[in-house]
Amino acid sequence: VAPYMSQWSDAWTFTTPLGPMLSMPELLSPLPGQGDVYLRPALQWSSCVNATGYELILAMNCDWGNPVLNLSGDDAISADATAYQLTFDLAKNTDYCWKVRGINDITHSPWSDSLSFTTGVTEGAVDEGLPVWVWVIIAMGAVFMVSILVRIMQSRKY
Fold this sequence. Notes:
Layout: E1 27-29, E2 42-45, E3 53-59, E4 67-71, E5 77-78, E6 83-85, E7 95-103, E8 115-118, H1 132-155
Antiparallel strand pairs: 1-2, 2-6, 3-4, 3-5, 3-7, 7-8
């Protein structure tokens, strides 16, 4: 051993994660604290880098003890989707919390921030279009315009 060098230490081992960690998804819809949400909302979030799927939990309170929906393990959502359309009605005028995390074969991301929303009384996201009274006014206006044009044409002398 050279006079300026010490002895080597004992060898130690450690393990590192494979690849970069998954990013945390951001919840996009329903908006935080949103009220009057349809009873079958579409829950939407941002994608996670390196995710092969997503786990989603929806509960009536944020202690997550008794979830209304728990999509994890074999029920996890495919990475192709960054939204989940509920297939059952939630309770009317009720507060719900939800969160999502990205998963892959090796690890999972941190859970997203949990957000809450309140359902309304509407049965589903049905676009009913304009109310009937608006169409009645439009039709009456059209009939009025046609009658004016007919009178103008009749009053013209050739």
